[in-house]
Each structure stands twice: as structure tokens, then as C-alpha cells.
Amino acid sequence: MSEKPTLPKGTRDFGPEIMVKRNFIFNNIRLVFEKFGFMSLETPSMENLNVLTGKYGDEGDQLLFKILNSGDYLSKTNQEDYNKGAKEMLSKISKKGLRYDLTVPFARYVVMNQHNITFPFKRYQIQPVWRADRPQKGRYQEFYQCDADVVGTSSLICESEIIQMINEVFQKLKINDYTIKINHRGILTGIVELIGAKGKEADFFVAIDKLDKIGFNRVLEELSSKNFSSDSLNKLKPFFDIKSDINGKITFLKNVFSANSSGYKGVEDIEAILNYIASSGVESSHLNLDFTLARGLSYYTGAIFEVKVNNSSIGSVSGGGRYDNLTGVFGLPNVTGVGFSFGVDRIYDVMEELDIFPKETTSSTEVLVTNFDNVSEKHAIKILSSLRIAGIKSEIYPESVKLKKQMNYADKKNIPYVLLIGEEEIKNQQYTLKNMNNGSQNKLPLDEIIKTLANH
Length: 456
What we know:
Number of helices: 19
Number of strands: 16
Shape: globular
Radius of gyration: 28 Å
Distance between the termini: 50 Å
CATH topology of the largest domain: BirA Bifunctional Protein, domain 2
Structural class: alpha+beta
CATH architecture of the largest domain: 2-Layer Sandwich
Strand order of the largest sheet: 1-5-6-11-10-9-7-8
Number of domains: 2
Helix content: 40-55%
């Protein structure tokens, strides 16, 4: 009895109808990245374990997929190794692991190729990553990341271009109602100093990051449990009560941080980013300065971003920020950079939820050429070659069967046009082009058909 095939938990197949939509997202992101001067980079699916371990914290190390050494991986172990436990045993049986993200491999690449790279170095990377997390809705063990980073410059032009790229990608994807939240590590540090809680930055960041989920009062309770004084919490309230546009918030912060260097530097950076955006002529109505944004602050050191589609139930779909020491862990200190990523799986879910995938993305074929008999088949193959030379995605039904079966095939594959080539069409050199969306059909010469399909 044959064994029923299954998939590993936390992984998925993507059938052709899904891949067409995913590629629509990938292709538009890739076009924007390259338009802004980013070059494609790929790194191996696996890295040496000493590159991966210790970079994501203890929890991250537990989620690394380890690869057993080739051959008899137990040959260099003994009972004593086994008695010492999994951690000791691991170093003897595994030297490699699947990559956990794209950032650490990128840092490793920069260090290994530092003498061949032209700085500032702009790269984008679209590849799968693996995490041995517990699979659940929206969380997988294999998923794609879509990163873009600039390293080797502290210019805030880079931050402004990230905002421009986010706007342009969403414009191409027809996602119109979204918010780009922006904040700065300096502003958050300045707030902590201003309320008299210096040294408690980590507790503050963890608590306010939960504001959207648990509300302001619960955040205050959590901070109180972390020994923030009532005086400190009272001083915090004006930062949450302010109702103003982004320029009003900048004015407010400049006043409160007039004697605080950390906070003032953060505000100046945000203001400079906005000025660069204004100079480029890009509208910035989607931007919101959000003092509560505190993503991954052990990692980021400057401006930070997070993007949410407003009329969707999906969480953030993009995020990133500036960091000052990406490569330091590999022995190349003080390489500043800024980067961000698109969550392609979440963007896909948003576009499905909002039903905004263009209809043409549901098929990779633009026209099906029919096949009635040996004579029409021979003629159809010539026509097919002409269509493909013109760059039109086309296919012929491979067998001579009833027209109804061929039309059903086109309908199920969402092919927008069918080209009917029968005895009369061959005789007159006029071919019937049927529009599958509205049912209309016209008899046209081949050059007109190519023009019609090219403009589709």
C-alpha cells in the first residue's frame, strides 16, 4: 500500500494561481528596488552554525534549523557527549543550519567582501528563511523575506528614499489606505530621560510597544510594576495626549527637548528626512510621527519605520530602521546602515482581503490558440510562433478536441482571450479573437490581433 504524501508542518505549496499573484507582488517590489539603485544579492540557504548562533538571542538559537553532518554524523561522539545534553552534542553532529533571516547573512557577506564592495553598498534580497517556530495561522516555518539595505553611509537621504519606495510599491499594488509610522531611537531615549527614568529604557520600550494591543492605562500599570514612579508616569502623559499633524508634533518635541541632546537629535533627523521627501516632490500624507513605535530597539539606533494597511485586519506589512553596528559581530565595527523589509505573505493576505489583485494576474497566459484538426493545428503553430515573437504569452491546446473542452480550459485558467483558427479563418487570413471576459469576438488579421493583445 502506497504511503499518502504529506507536507512538513509550517510549510506550504503555492499552486500556479497563487504564484501568479505572488510574482505580481515580487516583480513590483523588485522593479522599485532596482529603480532606486539597489542591486540583487543571494546568499546560501545554509550558513555555518557559528555564523548564526548568538545573533538572535537564546530564543532565536532554539528556533534555528540545524543540519546534521554528512555521512555517519555520530562517529565523532561518545556516551559522555550524550550525557552532557543536546547543547554539547550539537557541536559534534552539526556544523551548519538553515538561515533564520537575511540580515545576518548580509552582514557576513559584507565583511567577507569588504574589499570588493563599493560603499555605500545598496542591496536587495528576496529569499526564503526558516524558523523552527510552532506553526499557527499567519506563522510558518518557511517563509519569504524581502529586504533592502544601504550600508556605509549615515546620510538621511537613505531614510527618505525608503519612504518613497514604500509609497511607490503600494501605488503599484493599488494599496491606497495605509500609514507609515516613523519614530527615532533618540526621541524614545529622550522621553525616558525627560521623565526621570534614565537606565530603564528597555522596560519602557517593551511596555509602550504594546500600546495598540492593551491600551494606555495597561501600559501605565506595566510601567508602574517596573518601578516607574507616579511622577514619571504623569510626565509621560503629554506625549500620548498630543493631537496634531506631523509638523505640530515636531514643534512640540523641539520645545520639550530643547535641553535634551538625545531627543533633539532624533527630532532633527526626522525633520531632515521630511525635508528630503519634500525636495523630491513626493507626497507624504501617509506619514505619521508615532512616539509609541518601538520595534526591535536593541538592534536599531536611529529612525525606525512600520507600515500598516488601515482598512485591513492584517498587522504591519513592512518595517525597518537605522543601525550602527551591523557587521561588528563579525569583526568589522562601525558600519552604519539603514534597511527595511516587505512582508510579502502579509501583503498577499491584505490584497486578497481587499480583493485588489488585478484580474490579469490570475493567469500567466494571455491567449489560447484553438486546435480543431491536423490542418488547423499546423497553421495554429505558425500563428503561435508569431504571437510569442511579439512577446505575447500564449499557448495552443495540445490536442484536437471539441471546442467546448478548449473553452472550458481557457475559462478555468482565466485566460482572457481565445484565438479560433478554423477552415474559414485560414482561407481568409482573418482569425476570430474572442474576449472571454465579455463574450465579444472579432475577425481580424494577425497584425491587428497582435496589436490588440499587446495593448491588453
